């Protein structure tokens, strides 16, 4: 069983996105979700595979859930 804690960098790599600090900060700045009514996985900027990964991470409470929740909070700030 993998008990490692995932990081933002690892999450962005998993999503196939640039994962350096500047790219992550830019992504968060340019992809803000201004309504709490929009679930993270339903945002229009995700591919189908990315959205499925994010939804599954939360609904199955996977080891990715904590960092996905952090991303959700960052994008809804």
Automatic annotation (TrEMBL):
<dbReference type="InterPro" id="IPR038086">
    <property type="entry name" value="DUF2789_sf"/>
</dbReference>
<dbReference type="InterPro" id="IPR021250">
    <property type="entry name" value="DUF2789"/>
</dbReference>
<protein>
    <submittedName>
        <fullName>DUF2789 domain-containing protein</fullName>
    </submittedName>
</protein>
<dbReference type="Pfam" id="PF10982">
    <property type="entry name" value="DUF2789"/>
</dbReference>
């Amino acid at each position: 069983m993998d008990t490692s804690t995932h990081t933002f960098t690892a999450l962005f790599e998993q999503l196939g996105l640039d994962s350096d600090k500047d790219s992550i900060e830019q992504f968060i700045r340019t992809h803000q979700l201004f309504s709490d009514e929009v679930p993270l996985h339903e945002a229009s900027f995700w591919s189908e595979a990315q959205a499925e990964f994010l939804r599954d991470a939360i609904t199955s409470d996977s080891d990715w859930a904590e960092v996905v929740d952090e991303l959700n909070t960052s994008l809804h700030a």
